[in-house]
Specification:
Length: 224
């Protein structure tokens, strides 16, 4: 288990923006590989470090606790690290490669790319070459969680073939389109937030279950 444990034919799943014990329990029961905690106060999905720590305590071994940060200050980062046992960092802002490495402090990390028209995929992957994963998200106002997919056809085939073991696909995924995304791109993992919500920041546990079932169905179709 774990989000970045790449295995051909088995797409890992991260559900982001969980805020309650019931959310955590439902995600674990559904078979999630990672859960994301948003440390970005403007987000409706934001949690405090103490709340995150309490929620992480409910996770079984092997399920990653992902800390999503957006241009956090050193003090904010240390406040998270002091109480919440994060196992994987997600840098979703304008952090430089050196900042990501320094702040991750030896833990695995992934850098979010906000994909717009003519996104420089090669330059991005070279610049953040030390990242354990590249999270591909849609270019929307704010930072993530907009429920908007980007144009997957804009990803160069050679780039996705070379980097699939490190690609976490995000941006507007839901039970209707995740199968197509997996069939087209074969990413290491998929990341969903608004696609399993009944309102902004409020998770629907049935949709969480259905999303993971859709991922498993896509994997089965790909191998048949």
């Amino acid at each position: 288990m774990g989000l970045l444990n790449y295995s051909a034919g088995h797409t890992r799943v991260k559900i982001c923006g969980l805020k309650t014990p019931a959310d955590i329990d439902a995600a674990v029961e559904a078979g999630v590989d990672a859960v994301g905690f948003v440390f970005y106060p403007p987000s409706p999905r934001a949690v405090t470090p103490n709340i995150a720590a309490s929620l992480i305590s409910r996770l079984p071994a092997g399920v990653d606790a992902v800390g999503l940060v957006v241009n956090s200050s050193e003090a904010e980062f240390e406040a998270i690290r002091a109480v919440a046992p994060i196992t994987l960092w997600q840098f979703h802002g304008d952090e430089s490669p050196l900042e990501c490495q320094r702040l991750a402090a030896g833990l695995p990390w992934m850098k979010a790319a906000r994909i717009g028209v003519q996104f420089p995929f090669e330059d991005f992957s070279l610049q953040y070459g030390h990242a354990n994963a590249f999270l591909l998200d849609a270019l929307v106002e704010g930072y993530g969680g907009g429920g908007v997919p980007f144009d997957w056809q804009g990803i160069p085939q050679a780039w996705i073939s070379a980097n699939a073991p490190r690609v976490v696909l995000s941006g507007g995924l839901n039970i209707r389109n995740v199968g197509e995304a997996i069939a087209r791109l074969h990413p290491c993992a998929v990341d969903v937030s608004s696609g399993v919500e009944i309102s902004k920041g409020v998770k629907d546990h049935a949709l969480m279950q259905q999303f993971i079932q859709a991922v498993r169905a896509a994997d089965a179709n790909a191998s048949s």
